[in-house]
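Lecture 7 notes: from sequence to structure.

We start with a single chain of 362 residues. Read the sequence below before looking at the structure.
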Amino acid sequence: MNRVTEVAAKLGRLLDLIETSGADGVRLRGSDWFAWATAGGSNVVVLASETGVAELLVTRQGAFVLTDEIEARRMRDEEIVGPITVWSHPWAQPEERERYVRELCPGRVVSDRPGPGEELLPNGALSLRLTLLDGESDRYRDVGARAARAVSEAMRAARPDMTEADLAAEGMRALARHGLEPALVMASGERRSAEYRHAVTKAEPLGRRAMLVVCARSYGMYASLTRFVSFGGLDDDLRERHRCVREVEAALWDASRVGARLDDLYLVAERAYAAVGGRRPILEHHQGGVSGYRARELLAAPGVTDVLEPNMVLAWNPSLPGAKIEDTALLHMDGRLENLTLDPSWPTVTAPHGERPDVLEL
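Now the structure, written as tokens:
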């Protein structure tokens, strides 16, 4: 499926949403929804923002990207395909946009990030974007492969006298070389990776070991992965912890079948931790869940009754102090999980669901 066909299909879904909700229009402001609806287009300039420099308005009269004159030409040239009109206003007159929307939509407007007088998207709207079309799956494979290569390059450049900030910089440079946005790059060394589940990057020396956690974005899609490097061999205790997190992950991968509920998968992880002697770790960090146009669209947690469907993307990330495992995988109808983020050059160990990343020893 090419992008033009994909955009047309998604606009059809949004028109169905308009009809079922009784709204006059849908405004999609978030970078997540914008990328989904435009088949990989981007409205992002400031990476840390959830909304971008353009939005998508869908009405019964048509689909419109609303932006200012700074962005309009680039949107037409580089981001937008298919039956979408790019409409712009002078950057100093944002009120013109609101006037235009009121002309097209005199009644109810629903939105992912509602403004004054607007309503939130109806319950269940998120499901529109959680199962991938063929073109999305192909793009996701591309994102995952590039992210895996970038992380491998960064970790092979690591040295024990580097700081966490140095390693994070290597990660961001590698992502940029591969055309990826660094939505999250978190490097931690020997001490802090054992102390904290979210050991956000500091200037502390790495020491004998390091962890690099990455959420890389392209086409609006997130590829998440975690890798470890050790300068010299691992001690027996740490090697056992890595084996244990692989056991927990294997239980999650085995249970990640079409129709499985996310709250049931939480219980799977809870039992798997208990089997390897750790009942508390599941309380110390989430275990991951459904990925897509956000690093985590849905988490496996108590009370989350959403079920897995074919062509959903999953990213599980079980952890113990000093040990963690994470990749991003596509769920197929037959229950097979296709790993999208495993670099063939990275050292692996054999596990029930294929080769899994090992600690790189330098």
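Residues 136 and 200 are 31 Å apart (CA to CA). Keep this in mind for problem set 3.
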